[in-house]
Amino acid sequence: MGALAAMMRKDLRLELRSGRSTIALVALSLLIMVVLVFALGASATRRVDSAAGALWVALIFSGMLGATRALNSESENGCIRGLLLSPLDPAAIFVAKLGASFIFMAIAEAAAVLLAILFFNLDVGAGIARLAGVMLLGALGFAALATLLAAISERTRAGDLMLPLLAVPMFVPALIAGVKASSLTLSGAPPGAISQWIRILAAFDVLFVTAGYLLFEHVVGEDQD
Amino acid sequence: MNRTATNSLGAASLLLMLAALFMIFLYVPSEAEQGIVQRIFYFHAPLAWVAFMAFGLVAISGIFYLWLGDSIWDDLGYAAAESGMVFCTLMLVSGSMWAKPIWGAWWTWDSRLTTTFVLWLMYGGYLMLRAMADDTPQVARFGAVVGIVAALDVPIVIVSVRLWRTIHPAVLVMRNGGHGLEDPRMLATLGVSMLAFTALFAWLLLLRFSELRARTRLAGLAQRLAMAQAAANDMPPGAARGIAEGAS
Fold first, then answer.
1. How far is CA B180 from CA A198, B47, B91, in A?
2. Do A156 and B163 touch (CB under 8 A)?
3. How many beta-carbon pairs below 8 A join chains A and B?
4. Which residue on chain A is closest to B129 by alpha carbon?
5. Which of A13, A60, A104, A140 gives the lowest tally of CB atoms within 10 Å of its CB?
6. What is the ipTM of this complex?
7. Residue stretches of chain A with pLDDT short of 70
8. Which residue of chain A has the CA closest to B150?
9. What is the value of pTM for the model shown?
10. Would you call A176 and B149 a contact, using CB atoms and an 8 Å cutoff?
């Protein structure tokens, strides 16, 4: 537990001192919102659905960038080898990297939600807390999925291009649930209406955090044979 | 892999396929509502069965590979993914050909179509990973992990897509409700077609599997040869491994 906290502290301190990932992720969210306002239009009729879609597009892109950043900082200069030689369990490395990606994503999401409210002229009111909960559930699931798959993709010839090819199809169930829950929340539906989508998001999170925890050691290790 | 076994499996799938074609086009009566188009079903359903079986096989071999570490499981999983992708693509194409006259559109975002399409995308990603990482020593473990994670994802995909599109076209309900195939000749045709496509899949899988096994063995032999040469020339083992990687 102490080692895990130390790893997360290291990643966060690195980020606080350089600010590279956070600035890049927030800027990316801003640009995605601008692109989608022009692409979908911010007209009054469909703005709630457009805004929900835009939020999840921003989540996917910032998630891929966040997970890639969190893992690339270790593969530069072969730091991952040092981590693997340390008495840390590889699963703890996964949790630490997942935590770092999740925090980067949560910051980007907060920016994306504010921008969506501004650009799409949304009237969220009390729904903001529920919307935040839905987005954070989605971010946790995507961070788990992307952390596991980014460890694979960064070692292929295609590099970071491989990550969306693997991660986006697998994220489809959470994407469907998340977009539905977000647009229902933004259009002022009662909390009961979104509970089935929340359950799908939660199941996705549990499944992929567990899968990543158990399988991560198989993707980061050096080959013995 | 035994050559006669492979060849006789190939011959069996050829004969079964001829029998299935005869039954589909000449023997089975046309379905009352949909007419002749419904005969696509006798291709479509077996293709779907084989595709799902193949992707299950990818996940199971992935688990066995991570557990036992024997390259035989990796070769089996890779062969199953490649053959399964062919059948999954044919299933989507045949389904689309059937949908056009019946539903009036080549593609609808119906729950089953969407689920299958997402599955196709996932295994497309798996095959691209294998192609992009073929010179990475960990590629077998990467393949196993992606195969397992994709299979774990399938139940959530099915549930979410079903909630997303709750309207099931009547054709699909009827087809699986057991009422669509009243005539015993229809069931017989479906059974023979299932057997034919399963045999075809098994044959293709075996062919690809033996090729991958041969490739794995060849790489091992090349490495041993390089080691032996290095030992003869008194080279350090690190240099020998470099030669082996160059040779394989």
1. 37, 19, 20
2. no
3. 98
4. A162
5. A13
6. 0.86
7. 1, 42, 44, 222-225
8. A170
9. 0.85
10. no
